[in-house]
Amino acid sequence: MQTEATTADPNADNLRRASIDRSVKGPVLFLFTNAAFWLMASTLLGFLAAVKLVFPGFLDYSILSYGRVQPAHLAALVYGWGIQSGLGVALWLMARRTAVELKGGQATLITLGVVWNIAVTIGVLGILFGCGTSIEWLEFPSTITPVLLVVFLVFAFRIVSMVACPARTEGFMVSTWYITGACFWFPWLFATACYLLNHVELGALGAGISAWYVHGVILLFFVPIGIGSAYYFIPKITGQPIHSAQLSQMGFWLLAVFGGWTGMQRFMGGPIPAWMPVVGSVAGVLLLIPVGIVGLNHHLTTLGSHKLVATSPTLRFTFFGALFYPVSGVILALISAFWTGANLQFTHAWYGYQIVSVYGFFSMCTFGAIYYIVPRLAGCEWLSVRLIRNHFWFSVYGIGTIVVTSFVGGLQQGAGLNDPANWDGTFWGVVSNSHGYVVARALAWALILWSNFWFLIHLMLMVAGLGRRSSSPTLLTHEHEHEELPLTEGAKA
Amino acid sequence: MTDFRTFVLKLIASFGLPWLLLIIVPAISYQGTKPLAYDKDKGDELDSSYYYPLTPVVNHQGEAIYAAEGCVQCHSQMIRPPSMALDGWRKGWGQDQSSHPAEPARATQLRDYFGDKHSFLGVQRNGPDLANVGYRFETRTQVHLHLYEPRALNEWSVMPSYRRLYDVRKIQGEGSASALPLAGTKYEPAAGYEVVPTQEAEQLVNYLLSLKKDYPIPGSSKAVAAAPAAKK
Description:
The complex is a heterodimer.
Chain A: H1 10-52, H2 66-98, H3 106-128, H4 145-164, H5 174-199, H6 203-238, H7 245-259, H8 275-286, H9 288-302, H10 306-311, H11 313-336, H12 338-344, H13 348-378, H14 385-418, H15 428-463, H16 488-492
Helix pairs in contact in A: 1-2, 1-3, 1-13, 1-15, 2-3, 2-4, 2-6, 2-13, 3-4, 4-5, 5-6, 5-7, 6-7, 6-9, 6-11, 6-13, 7-9, 8-11, 9-11, 11-13, 11-14, 13-14, 14-15
Chain B: H1 2-31, E1 36-37, E2 51-52, H2 60-68, H3 140-148, H4 150-153, E3 166-170, E4 193-197, H5 199-209
Antiparallel strand pairs in B: 1-2, 3-4
Helix pairs in contact in B: 2-5, 3-5
């Protein structure tokens, strides 16, 4: 997993890369653009849901009640943005990493992408119009889930078949491991959860399985794609090889081994057999080990190149995304351990965990990847440094606010629920205590909405080929610093 | 290529184990779980002609509306044991509705959810737990009022109002017997009109009133109150 292997003729290398990029251009740009639309939609719904939690009378239509907007918000974030953009990153990265061109079938992939988006649209509208199932992260009407599964499988098959017979085997392949893992795990999780939860009567056990599914999607799809992308871009841009191949292998296998056991701890003290939450809790805490290993490895790889974090948009987003990974690991451990989890159960902390993993960690890494990939596919450079900066700062502060307020608000909510002084009181205390935190969340989503709007415009201009025609990449430097522009990204393009 | 095959086998093994042991085997064994019989000889209040759970028939129409409206986003249906949390002691969360119950509400168990297609144990608690909400309301009308306009009962409530489940219509003759008593409140409909629950609202209320899990299970002689939940 070093920088691209250098051959005798640098130009041949560039031509090879260009033809790989050309082969995946259509599907990848399609996925990114649509995903960015869904991200906008999800942000808007997240803002609305937060407002509704304080002012239920705001836009008082039955299709916009909190119980429908909140699941629609997360469904749009997970299926519209997360999985779609994740597939885009996985497809490009795998093609580049294995040096295999996508031979034919681009039109099929784009068609399937259209099908995916139609299915997600039907699903989100279905939730809003009262056909939701209220099964966490599977709220979509159950009839559309097979469509999603088939589309994902075709994409996953194309991606995995690249790594099955790679044209280039030198270098360490940990990114491809993570992406292959994600392509295997997600359909497995999704098919199991959809079948069992929609078609088998499981009572309380079903709730445990749906919690297992949510944790599985986070830990075995979003996390691997995020780490895979970070493992690819950090060495590529810093020009340093990954610090330790051994650490990255350990990190991968520990995630693979523990990831599938978590989830049921969400219902600790609940009606499912007691050993299930215990196992989930143990795995949730043990996951701190792979989190620590990956964090350490990324830290050691970036050491000494922190200046590049300031200038390269890709590295900046990836670096902060990678910073959110340990944060999400710690929050998971805290909500998993019985010691702290009993207090955080059924509070805003759970929302905070979903957002820090899907948005804070995964999406920041994906933004980093998009800032690298799109110029190479669209053949032009990002138009505006200011828009990228704007996107970065609003995202970091926005997500930071949501995560902190959700977690602290969750602590307070849990303390209120468990405070003996309140036992014969009304629920008003618990409700009023979290108002401040929820208002902060609404403001944060509003800020993120602003930045995502410009991100979408920027991306659409790029996809339309209206970017800057230049041989130098758009780096986050001020005008007067241009003489000392580090050409790392351009040199390797 | 062989490398790749080993890799895939390792992937399958690492995830297949939890998949099988944590999901598939319990899901299959759940299908064989049977109700338990009460036994007077062992100290139960009911004889062996009664089984736990007492009310395994779930109102699926009401449950579907509960799901479609996303009630689970704010209301849990799960009482944790007193050793872990205060749930059982909170006022109104068990069978004993007094503010200082003698016993905490019983922690919910697997069999309490028999018959549910998918139990809505909870996402967040932005509102109170509903595992035993059936004991909480004295009349159907109260539940209807709460659904139609939550702030009619509690000024501070942040629950959305479910007006969509109610018809506002012109009073015909005597007026409907099930019309909500809104006269004198600020949610009163225009003169000559009344608010009547739709079929969906009635189903949802049936479902909510059927949520009564806090009764003694076989083998636990500590009864919270004499009568089990069978009576509606």
